[in-house]
Structure formats: structure tokens, C-alpha cells
């Protein structure tokens, strides 16, 4: 296991959330990737954060731990049952219900209802089919200097394999390329976990 992953330690609450995700067959951010989420939230003194893909609350806890004490995490997921678990996990981690806004629904239905330029950080941990639409929405939702983070930039290790032509890999390649070539973003890929495509809005 890479040092970046063992360097990031998780307490019993995070370990429980991760075990619950594993039981449900849900992927979640690695400890190393989680520590990057916390770092970026803290570096930007994030107060308003959007997470696309609640899961069992693993990435949500990492984000909350980096955010300002008065910050609110808006987290979106289609699976109401997963969110029920996440709600309990957030409480166990010591976060009052007022610190999270848990919205059930498809991200592409929910995002248009969120306010322009109102967010400090957006974390996308959704189906690859929604990457393009989510990154497009992020450009509208983030303030100048806000941070976009997209999980899964390594495409399961296939990103540099020219013979990999599956839909997921092609979609991720297109997203990574579009962000890199856009005048709107200052991007980098952070190799923690499944790969974090990270970009600051100009």
C-alpha cells in the first residue's frame, strides 16, 4: 500500500462508515484521497460544499473535518437508504444535523436548483456518465477560486492505456482533457486513491 494511504489514519467512525460501504458493495474514497479532500476543504476555508454521491458518509466526514465549523455540506445521492446510514454516521462523528443538507435525487435534477457562485468546493463521486454534466454545473456553482474535485481520474488504471476503449475510460479521458484545455480552470491530477482530478475555477 502506498505511503500516502497509510499516512492517513481513520478513527472508529470512519472505519465503521467504510465497513458499511463495503457490506453494501459501495466504492468509497481511500484514506489517502479522503485526507486530500480534508486538506483542500481546509485550505479554502470551505463553508459551502457540494458532494455528489453520499454513499455511507466516508467522503462526507473527511470533507466536514476540513470545513469551517459553521460550514454546511450539501450531499446528493439517489439512494435514500445509503443516505439514512450516512445521516447516522454524521451524527456519530459529532456533526449536528444543521451541518449537513442531505438531498435525495439524481444529481442532474438537483444541481440546477442550487445557487450560482455560492459554493467553495464541489466533490464529484458519481457515475462516469454524469462527469461532463457535473463538471459543467460546477463551473456555474463555484465561486471564483472555488475547487472542483472529481474522483476516479485514473479510470481504474486504464487512463494511459491506449487500447482501453470502454465507455467509462473514454468518458473520464474526455473530462480530464476538457478541464485541462479549458480557460476556466487551473487543473492538476492528484494520484491519491482512484485519482482526483482537481481544478480551481479562475
TrEMBL record:
One matching Pfam family: Methyltransf_3
One BP term from GO: methylation
Protein name: Putative O-methyltransferase YrrM
Annotated organism of origin: Actinoplanes italicus
Keywords carried by this UniProt record: Methyltransferase, S-adenosyl-L-methionine, Transferase
Domain of life: Bacteria
Keyword flag Glycoprotein: no
GO molecular function annotations of the record: O-methyltransferase activity; S-adenosylmethionine-dependent methyltransferase activity
InterPro entries in the record: Cation-dep_OMT, SAM-dependent_MTases_sf, SAM_O-MeTrfase
Keyword DNA repair: no
Amino acid at each position: 500500500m502506498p505511503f500516502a494511504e497509510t499516512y492517513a489514519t481513520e478513527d472508529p467512525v470512519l472505519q465503521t462508515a467504510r465497513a458499511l460501504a463495503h457490506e453494501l458493495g459501495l466504492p468509497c474514497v481511500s484514506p489517502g484521497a479522503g485526507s486530500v479532500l480534508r486538506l483542500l476543504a481546509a485550505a479554502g476555508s470551505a463553508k459551502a460544499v457540494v458532494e455528489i454521491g453520499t454513499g455511507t458518509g466516508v467522503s462526507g466526514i473527511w470533507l466536514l473535518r476540513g470545513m469551517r465549523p459553521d460550514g454546511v455540506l450539501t450531499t446528493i445521492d439517489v439512494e435514500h437508504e445509503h443516505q439514512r446510514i450516512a445521516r447516522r454516521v454524521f451524527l456519530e462523528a459529532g456533526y449536528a444535523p444543521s451541518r449537513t443538507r442531505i438531498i435525495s435525487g439524481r444529481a442532474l435534477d438537483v444541481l440546477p436548483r442550487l445557487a450560482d457562485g455560492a459554493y467553495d468546493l464541489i466533490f464529484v463521486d458519481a457515475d462516469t456518465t454524469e462527469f461532463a454534466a457535473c463538471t459543467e454545473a460546477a463551473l456555474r456553482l463555484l465561486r471564483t477560486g472555488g475547487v472542483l474535485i472529481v474522483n476516479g481520474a485514473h479510470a481504474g488504471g486504464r487512463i494511459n492505456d491506449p487500447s482501453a476503449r470502454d465507455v467509462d475510460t473514454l468518458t473520464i479521458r474526455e473530462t480530464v482533457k476538457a478541464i485541462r484545455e479549458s480557460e476556466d480552470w487551473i487543473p492538476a491530477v492528484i494520484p491519491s486513491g482512484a485519482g482526483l482530478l482537481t481544478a480551481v475555477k479562475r
